[in-house]
Amino acid sequence: MQRTTDNITIRQGDTAVIRCYVDDKVSRVAWLNRSNIIFAGSDKWSLDPRVDLVTKGQLEYSLRIQKVDVFDEGSYTCSIQTKQQAKTSQVYLIVQVPASIYKVSEDIIVNEGSNVTLTCFASGRPEPAITWRLLNPSADPLDGDEYLDIIGIMRNQAGRYECKASNDVAMPDVKYVNVVVNYPPTIKKTQSSETQVGRMGTLQCEATAVPTPEFEWYRDEKRLSNSQSINIQILGTTTILMIANVTDEDYGNYTCVASNRLGVQNASLFLYRPGTGRDINGSSCVSAPVWLLLSCIAGLFFKS
């Protein structure tokens, strides 16, 4: 008896044709899967409607399996019997499955400094490789597989994370996780105002924070609000204090306070008469929990 063995690799869902050729001296032929007879001659023993024969004249006796699935993987034998000898041709069918992500972390919101673990699980044959990227301008690969650990997450690590599963069977499967990082306000820009009497004075304060900060304006100990002479505008992360028809009494120090539930920061700005040369950059207290900043704010209120 002669025996040959080959491997055929096929992708799940495709059609597999397992070739077998005979000559005109063959008396009997059959197809077997493991020990189960699929075809004996032209008689079909299998009940699977996906399976049929491919014959071209009397010289080809090939087996066709449509919509191949993982349970089709295994050994297939073409058994050929002639008057002189028996010969078998054995083929091992390998079924590959494209990578598919079946579970990924939900979008999350965390506080800056927290430890974060993102998960991404995928199936496929061969087993897929999993890679992570943060979709920022560089989008460099991150060190992680099924688990991506971020120790002490910072605000610049917020964004959209991409999990990619690939095994070269088909296009990679990709899923995304949005990570929001909360952090206390930081006042990054202030603009004092050199304004003549009778003109409009404008003070501007810009802060970054997540969640978006709330703003308040103070003059000495008094919180300011909209009135006939004062107009306060809040445009996202920027607040503008406009003082109409400036008088001598309006000159001096003003305090911008930006706060969210994680902390507060304030900055001192100045409305000053032209030529007095006041420091227009102002000063600010560092971000911290609200109760730690009370003394800092009070110091600004009573600043001479």
TrEMBL record:
Keyword tRNA processing: no
Keyword field: Disulfide bond, Glycoprotein, Immunoglobulin domain, Membrane, Repeat, Signal, Transmembrane, Transmembrane helix
Gene3D superfamilies documented for this protein: Immunoglobulins
Transmembrane regions: 286-302
Pfam families xref list: I-set, Ig_3
Keyword NAD: no
SUPFAM superfamilies recorded: Immunoglobulin
All residue ranges annotated as the Ig-like domain in the record: 1-89, 98-178, 184-270
PANTHER family in the cross-refs: IGLON FAMILY OF IMMUNOGLOBULIN SUPERFAMILY-RELATED, LIMBIC SYSTEM-ASSOCIATED MEMBRANE PROTEIN
Family: Belongs to the immunoglobulin superfamily. IgLON family.
Protein name, UniProt field: Limbic system associated membrane protein
Source species of the chain: Takifugu rubripes
